[in-house]
Amino acid sequence: MGDPRIRLEYDGPIAIITNANVEKHNAFDDDMDLALFEALREIKAKGSEVRAVIWRGEGKSWSSGRDVSVIGTNVTPMTHHELMTRGHAGILTVFDLDVPILVAIQGWAIGGSFQRALLCDIRVAAEGARFMLPEVTHGVIPDTGGVARLYQMCGHGLVSDMVLTGRVLSADEALAHGVVSRVVAADQLDATVREMAEKIAAAPAVTVKMARRVIAHLSEADVRASMADELVYQTFINKSDDIAEMRAARAEARTPHYTGS
């Protein structure tokens, strides 16, 4: 892989993606994004050699979301709209795989990283794991497709609370709402997810593939439609008067005056 902060390894029929930006709680920047998308494409290219994927993280957190320290520092000829389009195309590779992705989550899963986990097949949380969508508090909206999947799991009320207030969802609450399918002791997280992946890998490949397609037909269309909306609305927000006012007010240490435009 081109970036050591994203590792891709194979153990028999199981592919293992590891977030390894430990010093920053596995926060993602553009280079890590590209490395993740490259890993997903490589797994897809291997076809039936891979029977299940585990996505895990080193250190205290699975991923703390976006590395805010690099926002605005990367020089790129791409527009905001183009960057979002690239990001959507990259993560939607999870829908193109013929094998499931099991996500082993410890510590924090925040923002776009949390949304990416929601697009995967199965999530298992360690005790004490926490989930959050803080985008609105930063003047933007969640834009990685996960809100649609979260809505399918939890319904209007909880999604609105998480998106509009940025509230933290605990592992136990996540289990109660179906966001994760299991909560296990932290020292059992990797072993539990590995056992689950091995059970899937031992099943007939065509059966797993068809089962996933049945589930995808129930949910995928809504996710793709939501991402299309996100692409338009986030691009609008980025050029809006309110965002310009938010940035100016913070720079001038004053209360912002928002107009809704």
CATH topology: 2-enoyl-CoA Hydratase, Chain A, domain 1
Classify the secondary structure makeup into a structural class: alpha/beta
- Name of the level-1 CATH class: Alpha Beta
Low-pLDDT residue spans:
none
| Rg, Å, rounded | 18 Å
| Topology pattern, helix = H, strand = E | EEHEHHEEHEEHHEHEHHH
The tally of beta strands, per DSSP, is 9
Strand order of the largest sheet: 1-2-3-4-6-9
Q: β content, as a range? A: 5-15%
Q: Compute the number of structural domains.
A: 1
Mean pLDDT: 95
Shape: globular
Give me the CATH architecture, please.
Answer: Alpha-Beta Complex
**How would you sum up the major sheet?**
6 strands, mixed
C-alpha termini separation: 43 Å
Q: What report would you give on this structure?
A:
The protein has 261 residues and is α/β, with parallel strands linked by helices. It starts with 5 loop residues before the first strand and ends in a 9-residue tail after the last helix. The chain is globular. The strands form two sheets. Strands 1-2-3-4-6-9 form a six-stranded mixed sheet, with helices on both faces. A three-stranded mixed sheet has the order 5-7-8. The longest helix is centred in the last third of the chain and has 34 residues, at 205-238. It has helices at 30-45, 80-91, 93-96, 111-119, 146-154, 156-165, 171-176, 189-202, 205-238, 241-252, and strands at 6-11, 14-19, 52-57, 101-105, 108-110, 122-126, 130-132, 169-170, 182-184. The protein contains ten helices and nine strands. Helix 4 packs across helix 5, helix 5 (146-154) packs across helix 6 (156-165) and helix 5 packs across helix 9 (205-238).
